[in-house]
Amino acid sequence: MDKEIKHFTVSIYTENNIGLLNRISAIFQRRHINIESLNTSRSEIDGVSRFTLVVNIAEDQMKKIIGQLERQVEVIKAYYHTDEETIYQISAIFKIKSDLLFEERQIQNIIKESNARIVTVNREFFVLEKSGRKEEIDLLHRELSVFGIMQFTRSGRIAVTKDEMKISTMLEAFQH
Amino acid sequence: MKETQTIQNQVKSLQTTERISGSEAIIKCLLAEGVDILYGYPGGAIMPVYDELYKYQDKIHHVLTRHEQGATHAAQGYARISGKVGVAIATSGPGATNLITGIADAQIDSTPMVCITGQVASHLLGSDAFQETDIVGISTPVTKWNHQITKASEIPEVLAKAFYIAKSGRPGPVLIDITKDAQFEEFDFKYEKCHGVRSYKPVPPTDENSLKAAAELINNAKKPLIVWGQGVILGEAEEEFKAVVEKAGIPSAWTILGVSAIPTSHTLNVGMVGMHGNYAPNVLTNECDVLIAIGMRFDDRVTGNLETYAKQAKIIHFEIDPAEVDKNVKTDIAVLGNAKTSLKALLPLLNPNSHNEWHQKFKDLYSIEYEKVIKNDLHPTKEGLTMGEVLKEINKQTQGDAAIVTDVGQHQMIACRYAEFNKTKSNITSGGLGTMGFGLPAAIGAKMAAPEREVISICGDGGYQMTIQELGTIFQQKAAVKIVVLNNDFLGMVRQWQQLFFDKRYASTEMTNPDFVAIAKGYYLNAKRVTKREELAAAVEEMIASKEPYFLEVCVEKEDNVFPMIPSGATVSDIRLE
User: Fold this and answer.
1) Which of A63, A73, A174 to mutate to test the interface with B (most CBs of B within 10 A)?
2) Of the residues B28, B144, B167, B180, which is catalytic?
3) Which of B392, B376, B372 lies closest to B384 in space, CA to CA?
4) Of A67, A73, A175, Cβ closest to residue B323
5) Per the CB < 8 Å rule, is B198 touching A76?
6) Known catalytic residue: B493?
7) ipTM of the complex
8) B198:A175 CB<8 A
């Protein structure tokens, strides 16, 4: 049961220090695990960073990695969650030739139906932003690639959990 | 006049800061942490620190090793025998990369060590400057913590943190990389010891319920077995551990890093577990009903095949590092925390017991091992000398009071199987990483940390030659290390595997060796070679009697094997006696 490969979102609360990304990624690398996506940002707590990673591994291995992540001096706490336990999003931007927006009626329909947002338009190109699940973004990419995409990039997953993560309480406990 | 002076002194002591260079600050930090000895090698990017070491040479002793790897192993030997933090220092680039083996060794064997490396000036970082290497990047996977300093003002806080992290909780190596400009820069120095880091909890709290559950399981056990590791020694829990073992009357076996926590002669000590461990504890691992692991991490050399390891037993794991729980062996009860605290709390919960019948099984199996293996190792009837009889002679003449520092290979297994220890922190060996070349420099550090103790380095002819240049350090420091090389003209352990698993294809394991005695004499050391049994006792006697460093080469049987043996990946109870 524990050996079945699953999709996990890993949330790591850390100090904001140089080199920590290297230290965290090394823990996955030494077990020959690919990091599918990675995002780092500030968290809800001042001075505390949050890493959000997505990996495909078995749960027993996931648990061991969480232990090894938490062992790192500058890691405050690490969690792992399934998709069902989180609200998650990714974001993508597309750069497309402006001509197409006016010449290809279909593009306008695609934009409307996908709930994508036009960020900017100029004579040469327009930029489209789409946030949502990976499948929605993949679909939009497929639809637009028929017409030609000048540039495309997609962010790592960001996720919040349905359950509370008691980082503030934990930090207070550390301080005593 | 006198009064004015006193007041002036008081004012001086109240001044909390003084303006000094970064490099002087490094020395002051080391002194504040109680460091009186450090091992290293100078070079361009660390020269300002060496300049200060010159000025402070009456307060802090720098030992020039002959290679930076030797500095790390010496620092490890120092740490392992003293329980204090070992310190190694090197320059940037190759100086820093040469530390890596020792750092990796300290990481896997939980040895407290602080390494300080010089780095090119901060404006040159990333420019492929002369002797620039990204040592923070390189050392990340093998350090407990590391950090680069580019401003002198960071030095006190970062070094205080380095020592705190290296020593607290599960100890480990910390590397601090300091740019040359930060070493030169002047700033207002003030030192405060570190007592905590907000993101780091060194010792997890011990849960009372898990302790109670563990005690209940132990009290109800019919065939309990304790396997203890270095956690008992690192946690300074020897007394508490002995009290638990004796009260509950449980046969207790050790991992290679755990030995010497209680005397090897203790009646409840049933020997070593693992690949070349003793027959009884390995076989009975798969027969016990409760396995109590204390401060050990179920290394694969201990467990063999995990699928068939102690499946019949309930597992209790006393452990300081939560990441070790359930990592290799699924536990029924985990008792987190420092071994000293948890064993002390466990003691009153235990019922006195003796488990006589269960003990008899260990004795019976020991007799089998004695007949098949030990007798031949210690009392050989063949012509060639065995490694075991050398150990027996050393035991006899040191009465088990020596600290034994070993390298890696056959001699290590023989030494750990047969060496007798009365005192804790007496067995210094590279367990987890299996670093050949560890033994000689580690013995230097051990001897310098405990000059009153007899420190004997036991090496094979292979590993000895990996760090043989440290004879220079021994000579220069007059470190009275006793060096025994058990020479079989082979990389013996690899040759043994080739014999057993590769149809005797001895690929690159035979060594054409130099005249080791001549080499030792080249370093002006007293040296002797023994080739015959009748010469052994006198030579060991002469070595032990010497107040100076002494080199003894013992030419042993070329193709002896170490048994018992659990072949790699086999079941512990399938341990082979021949």
Assistant:
1) A73
2) B180
3) B376
4) A67
5) yes
6) yes
7) 0.92
8) yes
- 3 state DSSP class of A28: helix
| Catalytic residue chosen out of the listed positions B493, B516, B543, B551 | B493
Interface residue A175 vs chain B (CB under 8 A): yes
Tokens of A23: 């230290």
Cβ distance A22 to B165 less than 8 Å, yes or no, reads no
Distance of CA B377 to the CA centre of its chain: 26
Asked if the Cβ–Cβ distance from A174 to B323 is below 8 Å, we say: no
Looking up residue A116, the CATH number of its domain turns out to be 3.30.70.1150
The B-side interface with A (CB below 8 A) comprises 136-137, 140-141, 144-148, 165, 196-201, 321-327
Residue B180 annotated as catalytic: yes
- The pTM for the full model equals 0.95
pLDDT tens sequence across B386-438: 999 999 999 999 999 999 999 999 999 999 999 999 999 999 999 999 999 99
Cβ within 8 Å, pair A74-B201: no
- pLDDT number for residue B209: 98
Write the pLDDT tens digit of every residue in B72-89. 999 999 999 999 999 999
User: Per the omega criterion (within 30 degrees of 0), is the bond before B352 cis?
Assistant: no
Domain ranges for chain B, please list them. 16-189, 208-361, 383-556
Q: Is the dihedral of CA B246, B251, B257, B260 positive or negative?
A: positive
Q: Nearest CB to B199: which of A19, A63, A76?
A: A76
Domain boundary among A62, A81, A100: A81
pLDDT above 80 (res B3) = no
Task: Please check whether residues A66 and A122 belong to one and the same domain.
Answer: no
Nearest CB neighbour to B323, from listed A22, A68, A76:
A68
Question: How many domains does one find in chain A?
Answer: 2
Beta carbons of B200 and A23 less than 8 Å apart: no
Q: Identity (one letter) of the amino acid at B248?
A: A
How does pLDDT run across B179-236, given as a tens digit for each residue?
999 999 999 999 999 999 999 999 999 999 999 999 999 999 999 999 999 999 999 9
Architecture of domain B16-189: 3-Layer(aba) Sandwich (3.40)
Per-position DSSP letters for B367-397, written without gaps between them: HHHIIIIIHHHHS--SSS--HHHHHHHHHHH
Residues in chain A with CB shorter than 8 Å from the CB of B145 are 73-74
CATH dotted code for B208-361: 3.40.50.1220
Nearest to B37 by CA among B78, B9, B2, B73: B78
* Alpha carbon distance B448, B64 (integer Å): 13
Token pair for B186: 């002047």
Is B241 part of the annotated catalytic residue set? no
Residue A170 lies in a domain: no
CB-facing half-sphere around the CA of A156: CA atoms within 13 A: 18
The owner of tokens 């620039």 is: B132
Per-residue confidence band for A3, with pLDDT thresholds at 50, 70 and 90: confident
Spell out which residues of chain A touch residue B136, defining contact as CB-CB under 8 Å: 19
Angstroms from A67 CA to nearest CA on chain B: 4
Q: Does A1 touch chain B (CB under 8 A)?
A: no
What CA–CA distances, in Å, run from B440 to B37, B195, B483, B493? 18, 35, 8, 19
Q: How far is B297 from chain A (nearest CA, A)?
A: 13
Whether A68 and A110 share a structural domain:
no
Q: What is the pLDDT of residues B529-574, one digit of tens each?
A: 999 999 999 999 999 999 999 999 999 999 999 999 999 999 999 9
Q: What is the pLDDT of residues A107-150, one digit of tens each?
A: 999 999 999 999 999 999 999 999 999 999 999 999 999 999 99
Q: How far is CA A120 from CA A105, A151, B452, in A?
A: 18, 14, 78
The alpha carbon of residue B167 is apart from the nearest alpha carbon of chain A, in Å, by 13
Chain B residues within 8 A of A63 when measuring between CB atoms: 326
pLDDT of A21 strictly over 90: yes
Name the residue with tokens 């590769």.
Answer: B502
